[in-house]
TrEMBL record, chain B:
GO terms for molecular function: ATP binding; ATP hydrolysis activity. The keyword Nucleotide-binding applies. PANTHER family: D,D-DIPEPTIDE TRANSPORT ATP-BINDING PROTEIN DDPF-RELATED, TRANSPORT ATP-BINDING PROTEIN. One of its GO terms (cellular component) is plasma membrane. This is ABC transporter ATP-binding protein. Keywords: ATP-binding, Nucleotide-binding, Transport. It is a peripheral membrane protein. CDD domains: ABC_NikE_OppD_transporters (cd03257). Residues 11-256 form the ABC transporter domain. Belongs to the ABC transporter superfamily. It comes from Neoroseomonas lacus. Pfam families: ABC_tran, oligo_HPY.
Amino acid sequence: MMSGTPALEVNDLRTEFRIAGTWHAAVRGVSFTLARDETLALVGESGCGKSVTALSIMGLVQPPQGRVAGGQIRLDGRDVAGLPEKQWEKLRGDRIGMVFQEPMTSLNPVMTVGDQVAEALVIHKGLSRSAALERARALFDEVKIPSAAARLGEYPHQFSGGMRQRVMIAMALACEPAVLLADEPTTALDVTIQAQVLGLLADLKSRHGMAVLFITHNLGVVAQIADRVAVMYAGQIVEEGPVAAIFARPAHPYTRALFAAIPRLDQPEQALAAIPGRVPSLDAMPIGCAFAARCEERRAGCEAPQVLAHVGKAHRARCHVATVATAFEAEDTAIHDIR
Amino acid sequence: MSEPLLSVQGLRKHFVQRKGFPRPRTIVVRAVEDVSFTIAPGEAFGLVGESGCGKSTAARALLRLIEPDAGQVTYRGQDVLAARGAELKALRRKMQIVFQDPYSSLDPRQTIGSALMEPMRVHGIATGREARARAAALLEEVGLPAAALDRLPHEFSGGQRQRIGVARALTLEPELIVADEPVSALDVSVQAQVLLVLKQLRARRGLSFLFVSHDLSVVRWFCDRVAVMYLGRIVEEGPAGRVLADPLHPYAKMLRDASPVPDPTRRGVLPRIVGEIPSAANPPPGCPFHPRCPQAMDVCSKVAPRWTVASGGGGVACHLHG
């Protein structure tokens, strides 16, 4: 792993929402670090807490509906959890940028795209409007929006979905943030456009040395872009490790079930297996393993709280079955090459 | 091949829009320009392409959910587009559709039981207690309890609703199911549930499928044959294994290369794709794909490529192979 302060460090994050008067945790003790020039993919089904984690890091979960109830969020070594809103506003868009899933609804429809990109530069960098627009034009070139100068004065409805997502990326990158949170940035796009946007993000990451937290449920995308992977289930990270290890030897039964549930273009005649049941709801979260009720390898001990334990180098899983079984095999297991 | 169940020849659907202010202009969107294919009994035929390529419009036009402008659709030799009244009603029994969005395709104020029994009543298949028993059996077939009959759609998750949509399509015991992106609104784990239900039904009832999807891996898993559409035309067609593993048309290749494979050891450089799908209101001349094609030649911008039969079945519309 890289030396120096990580760009982003999240420690024991707990985010709660109020349902019928009581607080229930949607994110239950999530910890991870994100180094410069690294992409961490956060993977899981809808409702597992991926997006809430990102929103918490951005300081966008606020009372009365929700709250960050515990944990530290360190941005460049500085604890930002619980900062007053005024100070958050200085950080957002400057040190930390976010790209949302829905390019159709996350732009302001009555403001030109050029002004929307320039706005961040005027506010955070104190540029004049004309200087900011000039910089916006350069950003449009960088995210490969053709005839950038002419398109600055256009409105979001004149852009296609892929082009809008580029505008979103240009906005997020305007102030050269240390950390980029990308919440399902390609899910609403066609595969060819997705390939363009992923290629763009990879280029920009290596050029600016950004740390990227990439949230997705698409394991194909993860395999293409991630350095490390964290699998989330019911508000917890249940497995994390380097991308090669997670794909070659998924340890947690949930991770394995996810792999078995996706049809693969490169494996015809594959047996597909659905995951029975559903994610426990926020107000009925078990004390022990949250996946136990759906797990084929359920046994005694699953009803106790689970901890993340090593199954390999920098590879950890939150499952007493997986971590005991692999303790014997340890590191000498050859990574079998799927090719 | 035996006589096809469904045969579509030269299907066309243009939408006319008036747009603009203060001087509105008339725009013709050529959603489906020229689509031809056949589906054999018991076969699953996939239609793939990006958004806006006309695949959903083609599926709906052949069912006459929207009236096509031209072309010929025959079902077991019977002309679908000329059918009227009782004849059309009888045809509709044989061809049913499953929609993409399970949240908007069920009436929020109609119980599941009522939604399943209504078609049986309309078509005079069963009423009363018998209809209810049939509806319960259908629910069981898609893996839902009979108790669901008296519930409303909002009580179900997306995957359950989609299975209800499948059960509803089965009420009339059709031979052909048109599935329009049946799993793309669903989460990965739920997607697998619905795909497995569809595959079981196919095996058990000998159903034929027209499976519309943008997801190549889903089509690869489910379909026997596949057609790739681009701007209202089929650019390549053939056995799913051949077309998706070893495509001939540059567009089909681009689609395959852009579909990420969940295997980090095969992390290639993602293809550098130029441009986006042009508007169907103003398709390029010649081969519609030539402005984005890495192998475009002079002829491509002038002459539309002819259909060339490929070895191993199917064919391709490309000057490289013509």
